[in-house]
Amino acid sequence: DWAKTHVHSTMHICWGALAGLYYHFGIPTVEYPEKLSGVYPNTVLKQSSPLFRGFDDVFFAPHSREVGHLKKDVDKFGTGTDADSEQGGPTILKTTIPKTFFVLCHLEYDANTLALEYQRDSEKGLHPHIPYNYYPDDDPTKKPIVRWRSAGQLLFSNWLNYYVYQTTPYDIGNK
């Protein structure tokens, strides 16, 4: 509630996005049969959005979560899916709340983040699946392939430029 009156633009990521979609719209999460972990293709659905300026039509992004949202549930609440993944469902959403985004992929991940999560879960005895499309030949002894760095740079740069910097009202007369 505080952000509604004190924040000019908001980007909810991962658990924050799941919680935000539930809080603002009542959109329930669904549990996956197994953890979604890997680097998946995501399709830009709203190519006219400044958020996706410079993006390829399909971009790769890390996903790492055990729950998500069904597209039919997201659509039912009138939120707009701007990008989605066949494996992970809605990926990036802009809703009816002005300048508010919900990001369910992890374009902010470093090259080794999925590796560290895989190692952590393995050490806990959770028997995780090797992250999809991450290691060459699905071999965790090989160095991961980074395919999302440019999309991550574009996402955050575009958000800051088009939804924060260029639209923030500056009234220096009221100090």
Overall description:
Helices cover 29% and strands 26% of the residues. Strands 1-6-5-4-2-3 form a six-stranded mixed sheet. It has 175 residues and is an alpha+beta fold. The longest helix has 17 residues, at 149-165. A hairpin with a 3-residue loop joins β4 and β5. The chain is built from five helices and six strands; from the N terminus they run αβαββαβββαα.
Features:
alpha+beta, 6-stranded mixed sheet, globular, 175 residues
Largest sheet, spatial ordering of strands: 1-6-5-4-2-3
Approximately how much helix is present in the residues? Answer: 25-40%
**What is the CA-CA span between the terminal residues?**
25 Å
The quaternary organization reads as single chain
Taking all residues together, what is the mean pLDDT? 91
Number of strands: 6
Helix-strand string = HEHEEHEEEHH
Structural class: alpha+beta
Number of helices: 5
The biggest sheet, with number of strands, parallel, antiparallel or mixed sense and barrel status, is: 6 strands, mixed
Q: Which spans have pLDDT < 50 for at least 5 consecutive residues?
A: none
Strand content: 25-35%
Shape: globular
Supply Rg.
17 Å
Describe what is shown at a glance.
Helix content is 29%, strand content 26%.
Task: Describe the secondary structure blueprint for this structure.
Layout: H1 2-6, E1 10-13, H2 15-25, E2 30-44, E3 58-68, H3 71-76, E4 80-85, E5 89-94, E6 100-103, H4 113-123, H5 149-165
Parallel strand pairs: 1-6
Antiparallel strand pairs: 2-3, 2-4, 4-5, 5-6
